[in-house]
Amino acid sequence: MIAPQPYKYKCSQCGFTKVVKPKSDVMNPTNMLSKCPKCGEKLTKVPLSLFDKIFR
Ligand SMILES: [Zn+2]
Fold first, then answer.
1. What is the pTM of this model?
2. Does a structural domain hold residue 18?
3. pLDDT averaged over the chain?
4. If you measure from the C-alpha of residue 2 to the centroid of ligand 1, how many angstroms do you get, rounded to a whole number?
5. Which residues surround ligand 1, an ion (CB under 5 A)?
6. Is the pLDDT of residue 40 over 90?
7. Rounded to the nearest whole angstrom, what is the distance from the C-alpha of residue 43 to the centroid of ligand 1?
8. Is-contact 46 10, C-beta < 8 A?
9. Is residue 43 part of a domain?
């Protein structure tokens, strides 16, 4: 069994980011973002860097 890796959504328009930590057994619909809540721009899904893991 492979544990899901945390990732984040990033808005290239306003800099908004949201970290998502998926659970192995539950898919939480609120984690499924496709648009930026601030400006409505399409969000990009990116893996967490070491920087994010330290400062979140
Ligand atoms: Zn935005």
1. 0.63
2. yes
3. 79
4. 31
5. 11, 13-14, 16, 36, 38-39, 41
6. yes
7. 8
8. yes
9. yes
The DSSP string of 2-54 is PPPPPEEEEETTT--EEEE---SS---GGG---B-TTT-PBEEEEEPPHHHHH
50 C-alpha to center of ligand 1: Å? 23
Residue 49: inside a domain: yes
Distance 21 CA to ligand 1 centre (A): 20
pLDDT at residue number 14: 96
Q: 49: domain range? A: 7-24+34-55
Per the structure, how many domains does the chain have? Answer: 1
Cα(3) to centroid(ligand 1), Å: 29
